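The authors assume throughout that readers already know how a fold can be written as discrete tokens. Each protein is reduced to its one-letter sequence and a matching series of backbone shape codes. I therefore recommend that a typical entry be quoted early in the introduction. For illustration, here is how one protein appears when written out as sequence plus structure tokens:
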Amino acid sequence: MDVNAVKHQAKLLEWKDRVADCRSSGMSVKEWCEENGCSPKTYYRWEQEILGKVRQIAKAQSQPVLAELPLVKPVQDCSLKRDVFVPAAVIRIGQMELELSNTVSAELLSQLKGLMRFVE
């Protein structure tokens, strides 16, 4: 990390605290900036950068996870006269969970892959 990157990181940490202070102050951004000797333009620039970093972290932490499960024969429940579903794969994205059987078609998998691009 070069000197400018280190300086920028230090400013980012400073402004993270300043943005939190402004938001919890009960004042408008204009009032807070006047009281703290900065311009609203500068405040909003740093606020946007901080929120962008938060979004990056949140997105990185909610990346889809594909876990392949071993193939298990369905268990017969004689009282219900039907197979109990045992997923062959589970896809988790955030709080969403999709369970797939081992008979899922290639066409459906392709469509699901396309839809996953829109899930955040």
Observations:
- The chain has a mean pLDDT of 78.
